[in-house]
Structure formats: structure tokens, C-alpha cells
Design brief:
The chain has helices at residues 2-16, 36-58, 63-76, 78-91, 108-114, 127-144, 162-173, 181-222, 229-245, and strands at 21-23, 26-28, 119-120, 123-124. The protein is mostly helical and 262 residues long. The chain has one domain: Serine Threonine Protein Phosphatase 5, Tetratricopeptide repeat, CATH 1.25.40.510. The strands form two sheets. The protein has a two-stranded antiparallel sheet. Helix 6 crosses helix 8 (181-222) and helix 8 (181-222) crosses helix 9 (229-245). It is globular.
């Protein structure tokens, strides 16, 4: 509910502002240690990213409440935003977007980690689990760039707004696609913030969508094996429907004004 989200936001904001906060049955404050605030900034940013990786990966609609709190905290405490991006880019290089290349002297295990895979006892996680985590983080990012905390001062601009989403999309289309990964993440990204991008960029946005269909999808097809077609088919159907209807629907789980009255 909206009221619960406000409580969570206020608690985090109070903690970062140096006030005492109740946690685990005791009172804590960042002033208790000279590096207290730096530590909390770092761990909070890490926590936001891992919520994308775990929560949003399992419950897609969770992207919106988590992102709106993260966006508001970022606006009031810019250091959290810098650290959020650092954690996000390390765990999900595709959020940059960046596809790490295998360099001489890098072990296969190290390289798999650079690509965002979890590697335990030299065993790499399965592809569908990996894609699910990457989707969660991209969805959180796509929600964050379009949301603002509704109780902020609203004077300045969004600390990391839709222009970053536009840039991400343009950069993705300038890169050689990766089988499975590119189609999955473009679909996640456009499903979550396509509606907001459409409203902001209008004609330019539809030109971009046509370019994806005419030019980029065939490039993804060319590198996709028959066993990896699922994510590409989903993305193609989504594109076709949006282009036919000249509309990208509001994402499922988007926070309506009534939410804040709950």
C-alpha cells in the first residue's frame, strides 16, 4: 500500500539524514561511526540492486514500488544513485549497456562472472536463471528512470530520467546483438518504460521502433539458434502489436494515483 511505502521511505531517509531509527529492536544512527554514512550508502545501493535481481525477477510488478523509493532516495541523497549504478553495472553489464570481451589471460570462470553469471564451485548457473536475474535488474532500471517520489520537492529534474533510457536503447541498437540476452532485455525494457518513452519522444520513438523491426530483429535472428527462439518470438510479437496499434500499453503493475491513497 502507498502508506506502507511512505513509512519505508521515511525510515530510510531519516537514517541517511543522521536521525535515530529503530531497527531490530534497537536504535541506530549513522553518526555512531565516522564511516557510518558511507557504509549505509553503499549497503543500501547494493540492496536496491539485489531487490531487482531477486524480488523483481520473481514478481515483475515489484519493480514499481521498489523503483519509486529508490528514485526518491536518489533525488535526496545523490551518492546513493552513483553507488546504485556502480552495483547495477557490475552485476548486470547489459544495463550500461556493455558486453565484456574475453581478454587474453582472463580465466573462463572470471569471464563468466564479468558477463553477469553466478559461478559456484566452477559451475556456471543455468541460462534461464541468469536471464531471469538480468531481466529483474533491467526492469527495475526501466521503472526507476520514469518514476519520481510523489512527495519530493519537484523543483529539480529527475536525477536519472528518461533521457538515460533513450540513450540506453540507442546504444543497445549500436551493438552487435547477443543470442537470447538482447531480445530478452529489449523486451523487458520496452514493456516497462516503452509507454513513457513513447509519450516523451513521440515521432522519434516510433522511428526507433521501426528501425528495431526492420533492421535489428533480423540481426538478432541471424545469430539465434532454433533452441533460443522463445525470447525472440516474444519480442517480435510485442513489437508487431505495438506498431499495429500505434500504442505501447501502460506496464502491468504501474502505480496509479489511487495507489497513494491506499
Amino acid at each position: 500500500a502507498g502508506s506502507q511505502l511512505r513509512e519505508i521511505f521515511d525510515k530510510i531517509n531519516n537514517l541517511l539524514s543522521g536521525k535515530s531509527v529503530q531497527s531490530g529492536g534497537r536504535s541506530v544512527s549513522v553518526t555512531q561511526h565516522p564511516q557510518g554514512l558511507d557504509f549505509v550508502y553503499y549497503k543500501l545501493a547494493e540492496k536496491f540492486v539485489s531487490q531487482g535481481e531477486e524480488e523483481v525477477a520473481s514478481h515483475r510488478d515489484a519493480a514499481f514500488p521498489i523503483a519509486v523509493v529508490a528514485s526518491g532516495i536518489w533525488e535526496m541523497h545523490p551518492r546513493v544513485g552513483d553507488l546504485f549504478l556502480a552495483h547495477l553495472h557490475k552485476k548486470c553489464p547489459y544495463a550500461v549497456p556493455f558486453y565484456p570481451a574475453l581478454k587474453e589471460g582472463t580465466s573462463m570462470e572470471e569471464y563468466q562472472r564479468m558477463l553477469g553469471y553466478q559461478v559456484k564451485d566452477s559451475k556456471m548457473e543455468e541460462q534461464d536463471h541468469f536471464l531471469k536475474r538480468m531481466s529483474g535488474m533491467i526492469r527495475l532500471y526501466a521503472a526507476l528512470i520514469q518514476l519520481r517520489w510523489p512527495y519530493g520537492n519537484k523543483q529539480g529534474t529527475h536525477p536519472h530520467g528518461l533521457n538515460y533510457g533513450w540513450r540506453w536503447l540507442a546504444q543497445m541498437l549500436n551493438m552487435e546483438p547477443l543470442a537470447d540476452v538482447t531480445a530478452t532485455l529489449l523486451f523487458d525494457f520496452l514493456e516497462v518504460c516503452g509507454n513513457a518513452l513513447m509519450k516523451q519522444y513521440q515521432v522519434q520513438f516510433w522511428k526507433m521502433m521501426l528501425l528495431i523491426r526492420e533492421d535489428y530483429v533480423p540481426r538478432i535472428e541471424a545469430i539465434t539458434s532454433s533452441g533460443q527462439m522463445g525470447s525472440l518470438m516474444r519480442f517480435k510479437q510485442f513489437l508487431e502489436k505495438c506498431l499495429q496499434q500505434k500504442e505501447i500499453p501502460l506496464p502491468k503493475g504501474a502505480l496509479q494515483s489511487s495507489f497513494w491513497r491506499s
